[in-house]
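TA notes, week 10

Several of you asked for a full example with nothing omitted. So below is the full record: structure tokens for the whole chain, then the designed sequence directly under it. When grading your own attempts, check the secondary structure regions first.
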């Protein structure tokens, strides 16, 4: 903790900003009873906002000359539909998967976009409101910088992959694939059993690796971006405390502007990559090995 009357050190500042508002104190490294309330609340709010905006675009769509909002949504829809057609050849499946992919892209983009909000804005507001309501003085507002959020999304994609594997191939067909791909099988019963075990283990490793990497990729990029914004914010703090604060303030403005402009590309690209990988994995669930 910082000494009374003295501001926090850079380490204390960053550690404070990396603590979630939770329902209880975490007692171990892995504790599934702990819920990151801030991530859940922001997730729900942004999800409702995305669904409302897409619903509004569909409801107000006209056959004539579209307005800017309708044109922007139509560009997104066409982009997602093109991506879906390229990897999922089942037209019936695309009726569900393509709209899902559109929502995922917009939802992940909005969660990433929270990283562009000044890092101290909401925590400063919560510093006054939270303790008055009896909650701890912690708040993080970038859900995709929370590993539980990104892994939750990737596990949802895994659940859909399992669903479509069974729906398209049948339970027996998928079960046969699990023990015969990627190394095939043998007419010799002993070799067939050994290959079946190896194939099954390889399939499980593939599912786990795809799911973990899917979530970790998004988390790693957004967590790193959040840390950079915190370091840039520290320049502003030094500007207020240092005799040569003017130089720190100028550096704060320049670095913050450059990183924010670059980060616009990052948050968009990460949302697109997450959506594209989800489509690819679902497309693989439709294909037989």
């Amino acid at each position: 903790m910082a000494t009374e009357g003295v501001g926090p050190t850079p380490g204390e500042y960053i550690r404070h900003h990396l603590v979630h508002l939770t329902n209880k104190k975490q007692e171990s490294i892995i504790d599934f009873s702990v819920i990151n309330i801030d991530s859940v609340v922001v997730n729900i709010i942004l999800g409702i906002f995305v669904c409302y905006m897409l619903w509004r675009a569909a409801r107000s769509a006209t056959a004539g000359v579209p307005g800017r909002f309708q044109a922007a949504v139509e560009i997104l829809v066409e982009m997602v539909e093109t991506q879906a057609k390229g990897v999922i050849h089942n037209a019936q499946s695309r009726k569900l998967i393509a709209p899902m992919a559109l929502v995922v892209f917009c939802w992940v983009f909005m969660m990433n976009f929270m990283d562009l909000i000044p890092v101290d804005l909401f925590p400063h507001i919560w510093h006054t409101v939270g303790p008055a309501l009896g909650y701890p003085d912690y708040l993080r507002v970038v859900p995709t910088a929370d590993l539980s959020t990104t892994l939750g999304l990737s596990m949802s994609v895994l659940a859909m992959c399992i669903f479509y594997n069974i729906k398209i191939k049948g339970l027996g067909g998928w079960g046969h694939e699990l023990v015969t791909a990627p190394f095939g099988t043998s007419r010799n019963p002993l070799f067939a059993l050994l290959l079946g075990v190896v194939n099954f283990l390889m399939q499980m490793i593939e599912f786990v690796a795809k799911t973990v990497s899917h979530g970790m990729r998004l988390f790693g990029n957004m967590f790193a971006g959040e840390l950079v914004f915190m370091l840039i914010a520290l320049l502003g703090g030094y500007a207020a405390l240092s005799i040569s604060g003017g130089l720190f303030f100028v550096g704060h403005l320049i670095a913050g502007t450059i990183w924010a402009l670059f980060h616009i590309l990052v948050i968009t690209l990460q949302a697109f990559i997450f959506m594209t990988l989800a489509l690819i994995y679902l497309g693989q669930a439709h294909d037989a090995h």
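The mean pLDDT is 89. Use that as a sanity check on your answer.
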